[in-house]
């Protein structure tokens, strides 16, 4: 059983090769490789073309859009949908659909007409990335098996289980502590 990450740019190629079959005799070595005493296994190669393999496009656009909106709000401005879609390089219709869903979820406020646009209610607590991800992706990002198995747990682990759990826990910690507002501050001043 082998698991490796192809060297090179992770944005372009992340290759995981794993074997299905007997889990007996499998172990991770210090380099992050898995070896399997029984070689009679099928190999699955999964190539992920984007660094954003963890989140779907809706989450990616929502994240970029919310950070952009907050940056503009810090400068006292409420951006409209055309500006937001252009600045985050996302399709206008899809961006509008995502932002209206976030308005319905009470993450944002939208005002139509002259002087309108999108803004955050400053009386509300900062929006964590975890709240956003749970809204756009559901809990699967923080609970699913790294191999995609339905029945993966400590009693019936997948080949990635021991290495994947700490990554998933670290992601949960990151998403729980980072906010849209903190990202907006870090990303610089409004345009």
Q: How would you characterize the overall build of this protein?
A:
By secondary structure, this protein is α+β, with helices and mostly antiparallel strands. The protein has 2 domains: 1-53, no CATH class; 54-191, Arc Repressor Mutant, subunit A (Orthogonal Bundle), CATH 1.10.10. It has 7 helices and 6 strands, in the order ββββαααββαααα. It has helices at residues 57-74, 81-87, 92-104, 129-137, 140-143, 161-177, 180-186; strands spanning 14-20, 27-28, 34-35, 42-48, 109-111, 117-119. A hairpin with a 5-residue loop joins strand 5 and strand 6 (117-119). The radius of gyration is 21 Å and the shape is elongated. It starts with 13 loop residues before the first strand and ends in a 5-residue tail after the last helix.
Question: Could you give the topology of this structure?
Answer:
Elements: E1 14-20, E2 27-28, E3 34-35, E4 42-48, H1 57-74, H2 81-87, H3 92-104, E5 109-111, E6 117-119, H4 129-137, H5 140-143, H6 161-177, H7 180-186
Antiparallel strand pairs: 1-4, 2-3, 5-6
């Amino acid at each position: 059983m082998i698991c490796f990450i192809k060297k090179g740019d992770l944005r372009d190629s992340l290759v995981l090769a794993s074997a299905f079959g007997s889990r007996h005799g499998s172990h991770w070595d210090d380099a992050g490789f898995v070896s399997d005493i029984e070689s009679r296994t099928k190999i699955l190669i999964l190539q992920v073309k984007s660094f954003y393999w963890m989140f779907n496009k809706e989450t990616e656009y929502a994240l970029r859009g919310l950070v952009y909106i907050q940056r503009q709000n810090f400068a006292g401005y409420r951006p409209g949908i055309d500006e937001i879609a252009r600045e985050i390089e996302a399709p206008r219709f899809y961006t509008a659909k995502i932002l209206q869903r976030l308005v319905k979820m009470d993450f944002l406020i939208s005002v139509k007409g002259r002087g309108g646009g999108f803004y955050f209610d400053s009386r509300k607590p900062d929006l964590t990335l975890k709240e956003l991800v749970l809204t756009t992706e559901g809990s699967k990002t923080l609970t699913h098996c790294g191999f995609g198995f339905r029945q993966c747990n400590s009693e019936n682990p997948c080949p990635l289980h021991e290495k994947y759990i700490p990554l998933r826990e670290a992601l949960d910690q990151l998403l729980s502590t980072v906010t849209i507002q903190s990202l907006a501050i870090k990303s610089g001043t409004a345009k």
